[in-house]
Structures are given as structure tokens and as C-alpha cells.
Amino acid sequence: MAAISRRVFVQKRNLISLPRDIREKLNISEGDVLDIRMDDNKIIIEPMKLVPSDQAYFWSDRVQKDMLEAKNDVESGNVREFSAIREFLDGIEQ
């Protein structure tokens, strides 16, 4: 993504407003959580999307790696089709 630069002013109570084009590009809405950190002499603000705890496993490195592998298999045609559950189960046991 190309760098976007905007000037904003610090308002009363040290508030800043994120420019509309940046909010829209990053899909940031009221109530969203932002991570703010300092790196050397820079302020970095990054949107965070919270994941419900019962779905956190999906975002683990292992599951994401497995999902990417499955996606690549499907795209390359490395798949098998089964016409019955028994045929599927027999295929797993091989």
C-alpha cells in the first residue's frame, strides 16, 4: 500500500481526528480498537479487529498455514471427490 500522509491538529483534551479517506480505506468505524505505539520518534496507529475467543483458533499460525495449503490444493486441482460417506471414510483410512 502506498504511503498516505495527512496533517491533523491536536484538539482539546489531546484528541485527534482520523481523516475520512484513511478511515474509509482501512474500514475504521466508531467504536473500533486501534493499537497505538511509538517507534523511535514516530507514532504508529494500527486498526485491530477483535476476534471472539471461540474463533481465536482459526487465526493461529498453524490453522492459517493449513488453510493456505488447502486453498493452494484446490486451485491446483489436487482434490478428490466422493459420492458417498463410506467412500470418503475409506479414502481417509488409506
TrEMBL record:
NCBIfam families linked to this entry? lp_hng_hel_AbrB
Work out whether the entry's keyword set contains DNA-binding.
yes
* A Gene Ontology molecular function term of the record: DNA binding
Q: Which UniProt keywords apply?
A: DNA-binding
Q: Which organism is it from?
A: Desulfitobacterium dichloroeliminans (strain LMG P-21439 / DCA1)
Which InterPro entries does UniProt cross-reference here? SpoVT-AbrB_dom, SpoVT-AbrB_sf
Protein name, as recorded = Transcriptional regulator, AbrB family
Q: Which SUPFAM superfamilies match?
A: AbrB/MazE/MraZ-like (SSF89447)
Q: Where is the SpoVT-AbrB domain?
A: 5-50
Record keywords: DNA-binding included?
yes
At the top level, the lineage of the source is Bacteria
